[in-house]
């Protein structure tokens, strides 16, 4: 099925019940001016899929297939997280449930700070990278999901800064800008973030195939 064929269905399910992600995606989709409406899976009473993959790609595909199977519509899913080299890539695919309970941002941030504390060295930044993988399936058994990936590099602060965003944004320091991700406006963040980059690739793919 071509890009124009699935677009003709007019609706695309967003496989997420994370309000922070939904808000960012709604903003990003609005900037694309695509002839489709995007509906979050929660509005269709679709619960979260069981994320038992071992990579961002696997989990994104699992979530997209689940939403498509439950809705009968094409679906797009995001799997994203924070990877810290000095922690062997953790929290990685477990970013949203790093402290045990899914979506507890405060607990996740606190655990990350605690894990990093004994590893910090004077004047040596701890590097980290946000990763976003988008998976688009045209139907639940789509044999060729389309994958779009964005990464965003930065450093980790010793204490939260900023009131915007969600997840690990208050700890994610952007040295080139001198602010944290949580101090960026919505417009500023979505121009440069991992999710914004992945969505730009998604948009470009539609334009190229239309």
UniProtKB/TrEMBL annotation:
InterPro entries: dITP/XTP_pyrophosphatase, ITPase-like_fam, RdgB/HAM1. Its EC number is 3.6.1.66. It catalyses: XTP + H2O = XMP + diphosphate + H(+); ITP + H2O = IMP + diphosphate + H(+); dITP + H2O = dIMP + diphosphate + H(+). Mg(2+) binds at residue 79. CDD domains: HAM1. Its cofactor is Mg(2+). Substrate binds at residues 16-21, 80, 166-169, 189, 194-195. One of its GO terms (cellular component) is cytosol. The active site is at 79 (proton acceptor). Binds 1 Mg(2+) ion per subunit. Keywords: Hydrolase, Magnesium, Metal-binding, Nucleotide metabolism, Nucleotide-binding. PANTHER family: INOSINE TRIPHOSPHATE PYROPHOSPHATASE, INOSINE TRIPHOSPHATE PYROPHOSPHATASE/HAM1 PROTEIN. Belongs to the HAM1 NTPase family. Pyrophosphatase that catalyzes the hydrolysis of nucleoside triphosphates to their monophosphate derivatives, with a high preference for the non-canonical purine nucleotides XTP (xanthosine triphosphate), dITP (deoxyinosine triphosphate) and ITP. Seems to function as a house-cleaning enzyme that removes non-canonical purine nucleotides from the nucleotide pool, thus preventing their incorporation into DNA/RNA and avoiding chromosomal lesions. Homodimer. This is dITP/XTP pyrophosphatase. It comes from Acinetobacter calcoaceticus. The lineage of its organism: Bacteria, Pseudomonadati, Pseudomonadota, Gammaproteobacteria, Moraxellales.
